[in-house]
Amino acid sequence: SKVWRKEAMTVKDPQHDLIAPRKWVDLFLGMNGWYAVVAAVFLVLMTGFSVQDYKDAARLANHSEVATATIVKKDTGRSNKKTKYYLSYRFDVDRAQYDFRRSTSRGNYDAKDVGDTIEVYYWPEDPKVLELVKGETLRSAKSGQFFALVAGVIALSVVWFLGSRTNRAILARKKGVQTTARITRIEERKRKGRATGKGYLEFRTADQRVGKSLDHGIDTLLDLGVGTEIVVFVRKAEVWWEGDVGPREEVPRVFPKVL
Fold it and tell me: Which of 23, 93, 215, 238 sits 20 to 30 Å CA-CA off 203?
């Protein structure tokens, strides 16, 4: 990562664009809490797919018919720089044609030709509910259930870890000691060796407590510069930059009514 150590003048105003205390949700997402949102969405999707597969597996287990499907097309696609192989099939039920497409291995793809046939097991009430191998729909349902469980564990772990961190940051802003720290380092994030335009600060208080900011635009951080004093909140062993958590809430002063 690229590191800047350019010295700068102290105490710049404004040091950030926050004019009010940062809300819990906003701060949580700023700490990459969106990972929990993504995991939760994945959990919902995988649960939905799994439930549907369990229903279809039960239908096929209770009543299925056998038909002969013919390969009508072979094709490939690219995904994540890898080649995917597909076979398209067609079969007839009561004078109606049904088409479906399945991914397959490279070996099976090479071994099959257009015109080859295979047996399929379908549900008579809706032939689109089918499987090539008995029990594959149930296995798919169990796999979906497992991945949904994993997504749920990830979502809960992220919420617990980052939620606790968010709470500590807000408590530091509300009840911690407000002081200053000096920026000691500015570093830009990189992804696959390329600059992302995002970076973070490292800073140190006069009593040698060390802190690190959340990610911000690198140009904004460079405008501050190494050596600049910034406003921070200290609580226990943690130091939080005002530019991350926002300024402390102003407590309104209540004056006694003069009669």
Answer: 23
Which tens digit of pLDDT belongs to each residue from 123-180?
999 999 999 999 999 999 999 999 999 999 999 999 999 999 999 999 999 999 999 9
Distance between CA atoms of 221 and 202, rounded to whole angstroms? 11
Sign (positive or negative) of CA dihedral 180, 13, 185, 21 = positive
State the first-to-last Cα distance of the chain, in angstroms, to the nearest integer. 66
Strand 177-191 vs strand 229-235: parallel, antiparallel, or unpaired?
antiparallel
The residue written with tokens 């408590």 in the block is 171
Which positions ≥6 away from 238 have C-beta within 8 Å? 168, 169, 172, 211
Residue with tokens 């094709």: 75
Find where tokens 């809960």 sit: 156
Question: C-alpha distances in angstroms, 252 versus 3, 233, 249, 255?
Answer: 42, 20, 9, 10
Instruction: Tell me how far apart the alpha carbons of residues 224 and 216 are, in angstroms, rounded to a whole number.
Output: 12
Encode pLDDT of 168-227 as tens digits.
Answer: 999 999 999 999 999 999 999 999 889 999 999 999 999 999 999 999 999 999 999 999
Angle between helices 136-175 and 34-62 (to 10 degrees): 160
Dump the DSSP string for 28-72: HIIIIIHHHHHHHHHHHHHHHHHHHHHHHHHHHHHS-EEEEEEEE
Q: Which residues of 140-173 are buried (b: 16+ CB within 10 A; e: fewer)?
A: bbeebbebbeebbebbeebbeebbebbeebbbbb
Encoding tokens for residue 209? 């407590």
Largest Cα separation within the chain, whole Å, is 100
